[in-house]
Design brief:
The structure is a homodimer. Chain A is mainly α and about 500 residues long. Chain A has 20 helices and 3 strands. In chain A, strand 2 and strand 3 form a beta hairpin. The radius of gyration of chain A is 23 Å and the shape is globular. The first copy, chain A, starts with a helix and ends with a helix.
């Protein structure tokens, strides 16, 4: 067996372990009784430990040095394998173990601290996490030839730098300053009908969610829809597991949630089968993944055309008069708010921008952990004109930093912007898009995405995928145009 | 770390992989969409391959040679580790791979052949499986100091030999010759009420099954009940997964099935936690496991006392008059039949005895595969006085031999007999047993089992467990007494 083939075989074995872990994580969230938690933790730790051990093995380095890839895809595959091997070996074992311990300890303290809005309680633990993350980022950056923050950011999304994101987000800040008050004024002036009060029976919501997901292209012969406290899309490309939660007073959150996860699922289902279980056959990163969930949920489903199709269906299924106007008010409402995960699509980027700036400052040391709450509140006020009443609604709200995930936040907004840019390109390629959406038909869009995004796997990075599909790297003008059309006209 | 501690750590890692595989196998049977089958096969093969690799590692042999166990349990643990290591290393890799391939190929052919009742179609493939199994059994027997058939049988149940089983089964043959016609005559003379026709709604069956399982001691905080085509008990001791299937025309099969699996589950739940993930902390074998499912299902639940408690509950839940007499007729009916899995408790051992004799003859070479159908039909007639009309209802009915499992069959009947013997001992220890069962209370029995069987893990073998719990090795008189009391009085 030649070295390239040996690498493919070794990475396929690693991928099998990761697939097993993915299914067990789904099970833990959707099925497992409480009593199984401790054993499950051990099982997942064993699988992760083995995957790391195999990835870091010296024979991988030997294969990488001698491998002679024969196609562009093989070459991209080897490059990704090399980066993965470097990431798995660059850090001293002591540092990795200290980071895992610090993250776990900090996360535990944070759960309590958030509940009690007590930042000082978690300050020291967070400082430890930030210090260890800085140390790791510096070593990884050196090994990969990147700035420390970029070394973190690129583990979630390759192909776009913090400098790129800074320029784009700063421009958005200017846009928002102008657009948000206008949108709020228009919204206030508009007569909005409220949705009828519930109950919206869970069983009806679930049946409809299934039908809409299937209509969007989710193949239930290779997928399941279940319940969990926090909705997600897990599993593997031929066995997707999406979850949601139901609220009988509000059908919209489960339906939009399922369609969001369906966007993720379509991406996974359409990844290139010829490179299954290879790095180049995987999704291209978290920002690209988010673009795929948001292009279904925000661009397609919340469009005028699709909602005009959906309103009568909802009326029929729930036996309550649900007008297009009321549906739009519910699904396209702009509001300044403190909690990121509840934010609308116009203000969401402000939440991300704040975190993006602060996490870079924490990592560089320009911001001391002790000063985080003040910097958060000042930054939040500067962006959205309101100040969180407490740290629970401020710098304590997200788990990310407290369990050591620095560099992830920009993915959310890069994804939202990429979704708008991809939708604009898809509209050019599929000229009857609105007519299709008005019939509830997402296949024109999803077919285009399968070809221009899903099928590429990780053969290209973030900006390369956009350039390939739309003719240019990420251009925030598309997202601004989308918001202008939806909220300012 | 000393060698014993190193062994515990290595076996715990292997156990974690096996736990992961167990959960994924449950998922494959109870949850997985069809599209996931191929990937799941690869995941399970990867986990099994790694578990085998770790078990066969030369460092294990070094640790075993140097280990100094300090307690009886540690000593038993090391002995089990040693046997597992020998089993994992004794066979040449070529032979293992050829056996896996042959078993898989034969099983595939068998599925079709069974459907078409076409033994000649699978004859050559089965001959290959038998030849390879003979070769493996001879090598394993040499390595373990056992006869070839015992080497196979003991991988399913340690602590009882084929010679022991032969004596016991032969005695049962004599008992059956006399008892079966008598039981049939008594049954024919009795006036039996039929159960009212269905439907027995699935939801009511499921709710009741859950309640009965919980009442029997199954902790749903560490267990689930789901559906699958073939009921089983899987998962891990702190996360048991039992499954059943429902038939709205017959409540009895799901209820008895769930209580049977509950017996397996109680065993797993009560295994010694101090030796979790160690060989000595596992269940003692398939025959002991079967004794635990059958002592709940056959000895406790189908007793006069428990059924007198159950009948009014069924009447109430299903809103149909279900008399004790009709329930007994349904659950305690003796009949000569061709299919093992549908056989009653009196004739079931005849099905096993036939297979036990034939598989030994196949393995030794005394019976040629080509002569199997004839030998089956002759043997069946000699035991039960009827002849299968075709091989589908004869030697093609079970998967076991066709996928290479020789030596498993005796476990079923050894388990049934052990259940009767354990029940007799439990009745002496818990003198008000029938009063408890008549109130639906199985805790007296299950508490006794937890102490005398479950908590022992694999520290003792089959006959040692029985001797320890009942004062003697397996004595078929208890099973005969049980059948006599239930069917001949």
């Amino acid at each position: 067996m030649n070295d390239y083939a040996a690498l493919e075989q070794k990475f396929a074995r690693i991928a099998c372990l990761n697939e097993a872990a993915s299914m067990l994580s789904w099970d833990a969230a959707a099925m497992m009784p409480d009593g199984g938690a401790e054993a499950r933790g051990e099982q997942l730790a064993t699988l992760a430990g083995l995957a790391h051990e195999f990835l870091a093995a010296p024979e991988i380095a030997e294969n990488l040095a001698a491998a002679r890839p024969e196609t562009d895809w093989q070459e991209a595959n080897v490059a990704l394998m090399r980066e993965a091997h470097i990431r798995a070996t660059a850090l001293p074992r002591d540092l990795v173990e200290a980071s895992v311990r610090a993250g776990r300890a900090c996360e535990n303290i944070w759960r309590q601290a958030r509940q009690e809005s007590d930042f000082p309680a978690v300050r020291a633990a967070l400082a430890e996490v930030v210090n260890l993350t800085r140390e790791s980022a510096t070593i990884l950056g050196g090994a990969l030839g990147m700035a420390p923050y970029d070394a973190l950011m690129s583990q979630y999304q390759r192909g776009i730098t913090a400098a790129d994101a800074t320029a784009i987000f700063t421009r958005y800040e200017t846009f928002l300053k102008d657009a948000l008050p206008k949108a709020e004024a228009l919204q206030a002036a508009r007569k909005t009908a409220a949705l009828p009060p519930g109950p919206y029976p869970e069983a009806v919501q679930e049946k409809l969610a299934r039908e809409l997901a299937a209509a969007a292209g989710l193949k239930f012969s290779s997928a399941r829809l279940d319940r969990s406290a926090h909705p997600f899309c897990g599993g593997t490309p031929t066995d997707i597991r999406i979850t949601t939660r139901y609220d009988e007073s509000d059908f919209a959150s489960s339906l939009m949630g399922v369609l969001h996860e369906t966007g993720h699922a379509l991406y996974e289902q359409n990844l290139p089968a010829a490179f299954r279980r290879q790095p180049v056959g995987e999704a291209a990163g978290m920002a690209v993944h988010e673009s795929q969930s948001l292009i279904i949920e925000m661009q397609a489903v919340r469009s005028d055309a699709f909602l005009s199709h959906l309103a009568p269906i909802l009326t029929n299924r729930f036996g309550k008069g649900i007008t297009l106007g009321a549906l739009k008010s519910r699904l396209r409402h702009v509001a300044r708010s403190f909690i990121r995960v509840e934010a609308d699509e116009m203000t969401y980027p402000a939440h991300v921008l704040l975190r993006f700036r602060l996490e870079q400052a924490l990592l560089s040391g320009n911001l001391a952990v002790a000063d985080l709450p003040g910097a958060w509140n000042d930054g939040f006020h500067a962006l959205l004109g309101i100040t969180p009443p407490d740290d629970r609604q401020g710098c304590l709200q997200d788990i990310h930093w407290y369990d050591g995930a620095i560099g992830y936040f920009p993915s959310y907004t890069l994804g939202a912007m990429a979704a708008a840019q991809l939708m604009a390109a898809a509209r050019k390629a599929v000229p009857d898009m609105d007519a299709l959406l008005a019939r509830g038909d997402i296949s024109g869009l999803s077919g285009w995405l399968a070809q221009h995004v899903h099928g590429l796997g990780s053969s290209l990075g973030f900006n390369e995928i956009l350039t390939n599909a739309t003719g240019e790297a990420l251009n925030p003008a598309c997202f601004e145009a989308h918001l202008t059309a939806r909220y300012l006209s």
